[in-house]
């Protein structure tokens, strides 16, 4: 059973096309990626920008891959 | 300008890293993130959420507390949260530390309304963790010694048998000598009952004790001794057992 943990996140970080949000596991000593850690149940909460043509449906239905 | 908060779900499962790429036409403020990090097959790690520029350069890297080897964590990344100061420790796969011993069948004289220490076997002590428990003696009486501070459950059971009709109203009882704590699940006084036509009478009693072993009021190591009493009017055959489990090393 996974234990709950909190971590701070920089507020008001605006992202546009080409940026990537990455969940990752880092080695506690070297900072290298730890491939043996399986990451799942990922959810992002985002505030949609008003002036952009944000398309919700493709994100919610097939995220995890780069949208063309 | 922010308009509404939208959950982006169904990002799938990945090993080591899980990416969400912002596609053309999308602009948003990242408000929070959540993910489960399963490190049951991994060494120690720190969960992190990163923002990468289109060039692939890491612009922001938010890192959580360390998760010990074999541990897992459900991690919430959000503004204004404080980083957990202690890491996640996986549940021990070896279970709790325990120890046990017994008396074998011994002769046990009438003690009246008193109780007397009963020695456990000199060669019957067993434990799964010799750093927590040891066989200990005091004036020739064997008990089970808790070597480290912690909270312990102690169970004592005694079973007595006699072929001499016990005095009416007689009983058998048992206790453990112990540091501070409290009783649980105890039936520490048992009556004599005729159990077959030989004739034969038996009496049984059990006693549970939650014990706090700590400094300075009751410093480790602390030895638990078994004590019993019976007032049947004659010497009886007695068998007794003691089991101790270390529930936690975390005290108040």
Helix-strand sequence of chain A = EEEEH
* Count of alpha/pi helices of chain A: 1
Rg of chain A, alpha carbons: 15 Å
Largest sheet of chain B: 8 strands, antiparallel
Count helical runs of chain B. 0
List SSEs of chain B in N-to-C order.
EEEEEEEEEEEEEEEEEEEEE
Quote the CATH topology of the largest domain in chain B.
Jelly Rolls
Radius of gyration of chain B: 30 Å
User: How many strands in all of chain B?
Assistant: 21
Give the overall average pLDDT of chain A.
Answer: 74
Question: What would you say about this model in short?
Answer:
With 68 residues, chain A is mostly beta strands.
Any descriptors?
heterodimer, A: 68 residues, mainly beta, 4 strands, B: 252 residues, Jelly Rolls, 2 domains, 8-stranded antiparallel beta sheet, 6-stranded antiparallel beta sheet, 0% helix
Could you please describe the fold and organization of this structure?
The complex is a heterodimer of chains A (68) and B (252). Chain A is mainly beta and 68 residues long. Chain A is 9% helix and 43% strand. Chain A contains 1 helix and 4 strands; from the N terminus they run ββββα. The N and C termini of chain A lie far apart (36 Å). Chain B is an all-beta fold. Chain B is built from no helices and 21 strands. Chain B has strands at residues 2-8, 14-15, 17-21, 28-38, 45-52, 58-63, 72-78, 98-102, 106-108, 116-118, 126-127, 133-138, 141-146, 150-162, 171-177, 181-183, 189-191, 193-196, 200-213, 222-230, 236-248. Strand 3 (20-27) of chain A pairs antiparallel with strand 3 (17-21) of chain B.
What are the SSEs and their pairings?
The complex is a heterodimer of chains A (68) and B (252).
Chain A: E1 3-8, E2 13-15, E3 20-27, E4 38-49, H1 56-61
Chain B: E1 2-8, E2 14-15, E3 17-21, E4 28-38, E5 45-52, E6 58-63, E7 72-78, E8 98-102, E9 106-108, E10 116-118, E11 126-127, E12 133-138, E13 141-146, E14 150-162, E15 171-177, E16 181-183, E17 189-191, E18 193-196, E19 200-213, E20 222-230, E21 236-248
